[in-house]
């Protein structure tokens, strides 16, 4: 129904080894790092609902496009103000990007999005014809 | 806990542990998500840095409110962050893909030097938690005035 059309993106859990050079300074000014945000997807009879973790992305820094059947989510994260020298670093900072291929049953024109506290919620309604219908059986 | 410098092999070990956990989850039939949440000991992932006056701890906690998080600093310089991340309610239907983690989390970090526990502050913006731990006055660098003789 919804398949991930880009693979090979790093997930947020693992910091890229090339991101910090030996002096401990982030090298992302020259090569910006993109992370694939984690998503949960639920399916109900009327829609697909996607929940994505995009910490640090403000609503005006989020772009969502549907091109043909391809849904692309790009979230820009503001660079941190502090010096880039970490005492301890478990995650890298960078922008988010992920694409999904939408099935024909999704109405690409009717997708709605909300972003709150770093969580994106996308509502992808199904085209009405494919909603399950109860077929009345008449007694003969 | 606080490493003084970046340790590439520690990170590699963590990654291997994570992969093994994912493989285990797959073989136990708990779904086919490729990015399972890591153990409860490592959420949220943290970045730590400092300047002359304070130590800063930042973590990604999307979907949480500050009221959902308990932050404590003990007298022996342990910072603890705990809370619960609630899963969204979906009344009907089925999960098609689950990559995000939910439930209780707790992390304890040993701080590298004395901070002032009464002056610790925290804010949560856009799902990013930032804790500011001011250093005790005794350990802040002081400028020593040199008088002309």
What structural class do the secondary elements of chain B suggest?
A: alpha+beta
- The second-level CATH architecture of chain A is Sandwich
Sequence of strands across the biggest β-sheet of chain B: 1-2-8-7
Query: Roughly how much helix do the residues of chain B carry, as a percent range?
Result: 10-25%
Describe the structure.
- The complex is a heterodimer of chains A (140) and B (149).
- Chain A is 0% helix and 41% strand.
- Chain A is mainly β and 140 residues long.
- Chain A has a single domain (2-128), classed as Immunoglobulin-like (Sandwich), CATH 2.60.40.790.
- In chain A, the strands form two sheets. In chain A, strands 1, 2, 5, 6 and 8 form a five-stranded mixed β-sheet that branches.
- Mean pLDDT of chain A is 80; it is low at 13-30.
- Chain B is α+β, with helices and mostly antiparallel strands and 149 residues long.
- Chains A and B meet through strand 3, strand 4 and strand 7 of A and helix 1, strand 1, strand 2 and strand 5 of B.
Entry keywords:
heterodimer, A: 140 residues, mainly beta, Immunoglobulin-like, 5-stranded mixed sheet, 4-stranded antiparallel sheet, B: 149 residues, alpha+beta, 2 domains, 3-stranded antiparallel sheet
Short description:
Chain A has 140 residues and is mainly β. Chain A is built from no helices and ten strands. A four-stranded antiparallel beta sheet of chain B has the order 1-2-8-7, with no helix packed on it. In chain B, strands 3-4-6 form a three-stranded antiparallel beta sheet, with no helix packed on it.
SSE inventory with pairings:
The complex is a heterodimer of chains A (140) and B (149).
Chain A lengths: L1 E3 L29 E2 L3 E5 L3 E7 L3 E11 L2 E8 L10 E2 L5 E8 L9 E5 L2 E7 L15
Parallel strand pairs in A: 2-8
Antiparallel strand pairs in A: 1-8, 3-4, 4-10, 5-6, 6-8, 9-10
Chain B lengths: L7 H20 L18 E5 L3 E7 L8 E5 L4 E8 L8 E5 L4 E8 L10 E5 L2 E7 L15
């Amino acid at each position: 129904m919804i398949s991930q059309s880009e693979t090979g993106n790093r997930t947020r859990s693992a910091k890229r080894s090339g991101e910090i050079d030996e002096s401990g300074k982030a090298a992302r000014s020259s090569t910006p790092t993109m992370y694939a945000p984690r998503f949960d997807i639920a399916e109900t009879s009327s829609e697909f609902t996607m929940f994505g973790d995009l910490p640090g992305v403000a609503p005006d820094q989020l772009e969502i496009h549907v091109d043909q059947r391809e849904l692309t989510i790009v979230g820009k994260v503001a660079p941190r103000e502090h010096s880039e020298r970490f005492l301890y670093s478990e995650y890298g900072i960078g922008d988010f990007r992920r694409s999904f291929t939408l099935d024909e049953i999704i109405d690409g024109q009717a997708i709605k999005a909300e972003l709150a506290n770093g969580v994106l919620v996308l509502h992808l309604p199904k085209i009405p014809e494919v909603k399950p219908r109860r077929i009345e059986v008449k007694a003969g | 806990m606080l490493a003084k410098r970046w340790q590439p092999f520690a990170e590699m070990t963590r990654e291997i542990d994570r992969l093994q956990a994912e493989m285990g989850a797959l073989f136990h039939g708990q779904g086919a998500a490729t990015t399972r949440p890591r153990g409860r000991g490592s959420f949220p992932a943290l970045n730590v840095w400092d300047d002359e006056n304070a130590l800063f701890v930042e973590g990604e906690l999307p979907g949480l409110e500050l009221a959902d998080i308990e932050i404590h600093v003990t007298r022996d310089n342990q910072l603890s962050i705990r809370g619960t991340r609630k899963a969204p309610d979906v009344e009907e239907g089925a999960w098609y893909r689950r990559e995000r983690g939910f439930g209780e989390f707790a992390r304890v970090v040993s701080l590298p030097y004395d901070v002032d526990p009464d002056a610790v502050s925290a804010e949560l913006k856009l799902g990013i938690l930032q804790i500011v731990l001011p250093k005790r006055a005794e350990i802040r660098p002081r400028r020593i005035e040199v008088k002309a003789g």
